[in-house]
C-alpha cells in the first residue's frame, strides 16, 4: 500500500507541476547548447526563437574564438563575427530588442573554456563597442550576457561590470549580493540520475531533480540541466520537473515541438461510459445473417491506444476479444491510399492506389454490396465525410481515379446499394449529368439533405446528402451523426428477411492524422468508439449479427510519448502527414468472429465476410 501511494504521489507530482518558464512563448525557453557547432551558427537558433544561445570561447592573440577546444579554432570563427556583430544588427533592426516579437527574450551564454582572468577583460572590451545592446542594466530589453564554464569565484563577481551575469550552481551558498549576479542556475543531469532520457526517472530521482529546480526557484533564478538527451520525451520530463531552460542541440526541432504542442497533447477530463458486451454468441459457429463493417479511416494501434488513455483507460473497441491484423499495401505500392485500401476490402482483390472498385488491369470488379444483393441482402454505406471519397466510394463505384467525384456519384445509378449517407451534395445535385437526381429518383432513391429528414424515413432506397457543416469535425460540434446514422440504417435494413450489410466509415480519424492533430484524432476516435458501442448492442440484441472493426490504413505515423489515463491526458508525435504501411488491427464480435484472428492481407476481409455468411448455402436471387 505504501509503495502504491508513493508511486501515485510521484505520478500526480509530475502531472500537476506547472512549468516555471521565464518566457511567455514556450519555444523561447530553448537553450541552444554548443551553438557554434550548428551548420549555421547563431542563425539556426535565432530564427528558431531560442531564448538562450551558448558559445564556448578561447582567447588567442587578442581575439575571442568560438570553439570547443583549441584544435577547432578558425580564423573566421571569432565571437565578434559569429555572434556579437549579427546580434547587434538584429537588435537595432528590431527597435532595440532582441526579437521583433517583444515577448521574446534572449541571453548569450559565453562558456569560457580557460583563463577567465584574461578572457573577461577582452570580452568586456568587445562588448563596449555595442553600447547598450548587451547592457541589461540600462535597457531591460537588452541581450543578457551570462558567463559560464571557467568563472571567477563568487566573491569576485563584484569586480566585473554589473551587466555581466554568471551561471550559478545549485549547491553553492551565495550571499545576497552575489546572488544578484547569478543569471541562472545550471548543473549536469547525470550527476544526479542514471536516467538517459528514455522513459522517466525513478520516483526517488524525480524528487531529487525536482528539489534542485525548486531550490533555484526559491532563489528566484531559472534552472537548466546540461548533458540531457535531445528528444521530445526528454523535453516533456524536463518541463514537468519545472526546468526553465530546455537544453537542445536541435533548435528548430524544439521550436516545432512547442509551436505545435496544442496539436500534440489532448486531455479528456471526463470519461464516457463503456458498454460490456454479453459474449453469448461471440465466436460461435452459427449462422450469420447481418454484417456491420466499421472502418476507422487512418486508425492504427496508436490511434486506438490514444483514445483508450484519453477515455481514462477503457473503450468499447477494447472489449472485443477476437482480433487480428490486416496488411494494407496496394498492388502497385507498399503503401496504400484509401482508394486501394477501401477497394481491397470492397472487391476482395488488391488494386492500384487511386483506383475505386477497379482491378489493377483497369477492369471493374463486383463489389461486396452487389455480390450480397444477389443473395437478397440489402446494404447501406455511411460516412461522416465526403460520400464520394475513396473508402465509401469503393463500395458502390468503379473509377480509375478517386478524384472523379462526379463520375463516382453517377455510378450509384448502377449500384444495388439501398442506403447511402454522407456529405458532398455538389457532386450529385450539381453534376454535369443534369438528370442525375431525376435518374436516381427513378431508381427508387429518396433524397434527404439532413439527418432529421433521414430519421423520418421508414422504407425504400435512401440517398442522404448532408450539408458539409453537418460533417464538420466532432471537436467543432458535429455531434453523434455517425452513430445515429448507423442506428437509423439498421432500423430500416433489419426488416429485410435475408439480412443486411452495412459499412460505416469514421472518415475523420484520417483527417486528423493528415493534419498531425492529436486532439482531432482522439475526438474522432471516441466518436467512432461510440458508434462501435451501438453496433455491439445491436449484435447482442439480434444474435445473428457479426460486427467487424478495422481500418483501411494508418495515417500520420503516430507515436505516443506521454500518457496518464487517470487524467485522460495523452501526448504524441507524428512522423509523417501521409499514410504508412503499418499493419492495422481487425476486431470482430459475434458469430463467426474467430474467423478474423491472425494476420492476413486486407483483401482477405472480403472473402472472410462471404465465408461467415455461408453464401454457398443461400439461394442466389439471380439463379
From TrEMBL:
Entry's cofactor comment: Binds 2 Zn(2+) ions. Binds 1 Mg(2+) ion.
Keyword field: Magnesium, Metal-binding, Phosphoprotein, Signal, Zinc
Active-site residue numbers: 338
Cofactor dependency: Zn(2+); Mg(2+)
Molecular function as annotated in GO: alkaline phosphatase activity; metal ion binding; phosphoric diester hydrolase activity
A Pfam entry, by short name: Alk_phosphatase
Residues holding Mg(2+): 297, 389, 505
Annotated GO biological process: lipid metabolic process
Signal peptide: 1-21
Keyword rRNA processing attributed: no
UniProt-listed InterPro entries: AIM6_PI-PLC-like_dom, Alkaline_phosphatase, Alkaline_phosphatase_core_sf, PLC-like_Pdiesterase_TIM-brl
Record carries keyword Zinc: yes
Record-listed Zn(2+) binding positions: 297, 391, 510, 514, 552-553
Highest taxon in the source lineage: Bacteria
Sequence similarity: Belongs to the alkaline phosphatase family.
Name of the molecule in the record: Alkaline phosphatase
Annotated source species: Pedobacter nyackensis
